[in-house]
């Protein structure tokens, strides 16, 4: 069966049609946000679970010690300094500049970050939120250097993962670990509270090899100004700020973005995308071919075995 046949095969199962030719649509979410009820054995509090379900994200501080954070920061600086030794496809630079913007497959480039991805303080939260064993759909290190760090435009990760990777349902969560202080000034993650409860089926068909340009500037699969105005009129905007070591868990369909960084203060975050083992990608729902594996792990995924302990002992 060729790719076209397989894409057609899965069209009937498409719960969230998007990349529509003529019109944008906003439709209600069909999947749970919390995939299980909270109980006393959960790795987050009942209030945190309620916030995640209501807002679509959760900001956690104090999960890691200062020594652990210092070691993660040192590892991220070293990765960026050795960018010339990283596989070309895993490395994205700033538009019009040589500065590193993103390093993909972070867990493969650093044993310390691979250990972080499996840490109980992250993986157990993902397993609870999704009520399933989890694996890494994607991992990356985002840098936003001072003065020249460009914006990431408004988008739902799930819209892209569904359209171009073939992720079937909204059963994934991202963990963003702040590796520098993120203030309201240096381009922090911005989110629209409650936006995860609606799916924006975007207008515009997916060009072939769309990822080659979208990683620097996303133009396809983004909501219209009208849709953004409607959602923010109801809930406003919030910025996920905090000192280095803060962790932001955000639901895969929560609309988010970040501004350019024109301050002297760099911003750096590690991202781990945890997907439910039951939600592994099929063929893309709105693209001719899947994106490369450095953007979306495919095939026989291995469930993460959570590891407890101090990262400095790794």
Describe the structure.
It is a single chain. The protein is of the alpha+beta class and 314 residues long. It has a single domain (3-313), classed as q2cbj1_9rhob like domain (Jelly Rolls, Sandwich). The chain has helices at 3-11, 46-55, 66-81, 106-109, 111-118, 120-130, 157-165, 211-214, 225-235, and strands at 25-28, 57-60, 91-93, 100-104, 134-144, 152-155, 172-178, 189-191, 198-201, 238-240, 247-251, 256-258, 267-276. The protein has a seven-stranded antiparallel β-sheet. A four-stranded antiparallel β-sheet has the order 6-12-8-10, with helices on one face. Strand 3 (91-93) and strand 4 form a beta hairpin.
Which stretches are poorly predicted, pLDDT < 50 over at least 5 residues?
1-12
Q: Which secondary-structure class do the elements indicate?
A: alpha+beta
Strand order of the largest sheet: 2-11-7-13-5-4-3
- The proportion of residues forming helix, as a percent range, comes to 25-40%
Total tally of structural domains: 1
Gross morphology: globular
Order of helices and strands: HEHEHEEHHHEEHEEEHHEEEE
């Amino acid at each position: 069966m060729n790719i076209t046949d397989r894409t057609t095969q899965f069209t009937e199962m498409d719960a969230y049609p998007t990349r529509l030719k003529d019109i944008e649509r906003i439709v209600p979410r069909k999947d749970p946000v919390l995939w299980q009820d909270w109980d006393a054995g959960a790795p987050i509090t009942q209030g945190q679970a309620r916030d995640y379900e209501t807002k679509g994200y959760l900001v956690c501080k104090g999960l890691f010690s200062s020594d652990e954070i210092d070691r993660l920061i040192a590892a991220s600086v070293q990765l960026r300094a050795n960018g010339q030794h990283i596989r070309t496809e895993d490395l994205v630079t700033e538009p019009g500049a040589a500065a590193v913007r993103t390093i993909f497959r972070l867990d493969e480039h650093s044993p310390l970050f691979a250990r972080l991805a499996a840490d109980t303080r992250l993986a157990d939260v993902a397993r609870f939120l999704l009520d399933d064993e989890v694996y890494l759909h994607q991992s990356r290190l985002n840098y936003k250097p001072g003065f020249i760090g460009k914006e990431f435009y408004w988008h739902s990760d799930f819209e892209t993962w569904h359209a171009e990777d073939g992720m079937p349902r909204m059963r994934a969560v991202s963990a963003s670990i702040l590796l520098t202080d993120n203030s309201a000034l240096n381009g922090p993650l911005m989110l629209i509270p409650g936006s995860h409860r609606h799916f924006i089926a975007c207008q515009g068909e997916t060009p072939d090899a769309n990822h080659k340009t979208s990683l620097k500037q996303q133009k396809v699969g983004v909501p219209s100004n009208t849709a953004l105005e409607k959602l923010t009129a109801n809930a406003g905007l919030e910025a996920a700020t905090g000192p280095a070591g803060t962790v932001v868990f955000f639901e895969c369909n929560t609309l988010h973005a970040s501004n350019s960084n024109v301050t002297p203060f760099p911003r750096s975050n590690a991202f781990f995308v945890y997907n439910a083992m039951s939600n592994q990608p099929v063929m893309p729902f709105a693209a001719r071919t899947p994106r490369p594996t450095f953007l979306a792990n495919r095939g026989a995924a291995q469930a993460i075995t959570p590891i407890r302990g101090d990262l400095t002992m790794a």
